[in-house]
């Protein structure tokens, strides 16, 4: 099985979605959907031989968990810089306006 077939199988089984929800404890919407897509992109861009090796050794889920944790928690990750920082700014602005009586 090649890298694309492995990733296709992971997508059909919604493995990344399951792991992302487990780690973030949030519904699959907004920036969390962006995180799911970023993880799939990382998998697609990763070395083919390494993906195949991880899959054949039953370690692919652990690898995906590590990728999700790094993307979600690190303030230097591409996910944080691209998506999460913007959502955080919007939430702060929205809360401040609401607290000041603006809607």
Structure, explained:
- The chain is mainly α.
- It has one domain.
- 78% of the residues lie in helices and 0% in strands.
- The longest helix is centred in the last third of the chain and has 22 residues, at 78-99.
- The N and C termini lie far apart (54 Å).
- The model has no long low-confidence stretch (mean pLDDT 86).
Number of domains: 1
Gap between N and C termini? 54 Å
**Main pleated-sheet profile:** none
Give the helix/strand class: mainly alpha
Strand content: under 5%
Q: Using DSSP, what is the number of strands? A: 0
Shape: globular
Chain-averaged pLDDT:
86
Total helical elements: 6
Unreliable sequence segments = none
Helix content: over 70%
Order of helices and strands: HHHHHH
Give the SSE map:
Elements: H1 3-12, H2 15-24, H3 31-45, H4 48-56, H5 60-73, H6 78-99
Helix pairs in contact: 2-3, 2-5, 3-5, 3-6
């Amino acid at each position: 099985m090649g890298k694309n077939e492995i990733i296709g199988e992971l997508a059909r089984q919604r493995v990344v979605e399951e792991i992302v929800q487990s780690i973030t404890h949030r519904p699959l919407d907004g920036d969390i959907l962006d995180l799911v897509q970023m993880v799939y992109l990382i998998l697609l861009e990763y070395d083919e031989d390494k993906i195949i090796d991880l899959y054949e050794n039953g370690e692919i889920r652990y690898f995906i968990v590590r990728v999700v944790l790094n993307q979600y928690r690190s303030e230097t990750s591409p996910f944080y810089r691209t998506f999460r920082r913007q959502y955080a700014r919007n939430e702060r602005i929205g809360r401040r306006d609401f607290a000041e009586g603006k809607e």
